[in-house]
Design brief:
alpha+beta, two-stranded antiparallel ribbon, about 20% strand, three-stranded antiparallel beta sheet, globular, about 150 residues, 6 helices
Length: about 150
């Protein structure tokens, strides 16, 4: 069976678009690596960073650590100039739109395209590049708190 992105896929962030960082409720779950990078960037200890910028999302038997959102659903780090922690942004942010759920099939990709004006524009990512981005997401499990 042929992979739908065998010939690559185009994507670039479109200037002025912050849709993936705002507008709708969602979660930016942090891995331990994400937390360490954000703490280094903000010069904060882990517990202080979590108390200030995160929420614990109840998943039933455990909680996962996610970045806070403002009342309008903007990410806590989204400013008028863009992401205030861009160089330390979480892997979830760095790998968008090449998430497993979006890359599952061509229909998922096309559905995401409806809300992301950068899909289909700009740099063409090769199949190898996309596969590497997907591989990097493995082993970066979100932080779990009991």
């Amino acid at each position: 069976m042929r992979c739908f992105y065998e010939k690559g896929l185009a994507f670039t962030c479109v200037q002025g678009c912050n849709y993936c960082c705002s507008c709708e409720p969602g979660y930016v779950f942090l891995s331990q690596e994400d937390l360490e990078k954000l703490c280094a960037f903000t010069s904060m200890q882990e517990d202080q960073f979590i108390r200030t910028y995160c929420r614990l999302v109840n998943m039933g038997a455990f909680h996962m650590v996610s970045l806070l959102e403002r009342e309008n659903y903007d990410c806590i780090f989204l400013t008028k100039q863009g992401c205030s922690v861009y160089n330390a942004r979480p892997r979830q942010c760095r790998t968008y739109p090449f998430w497993r759920s979006v890359m599952e099939n061509e229909e998922s990709w096309e559905a995401e395209k409806a809300s992301c004006p950068g899909i289909g524009k700009g740099k063409v990512y090769s199949k190898a590049e996309i596969d590497e981005i997907l591989r990097q997401q493995t082993g970066q499990e979100p932080i779990i708190r009991l």
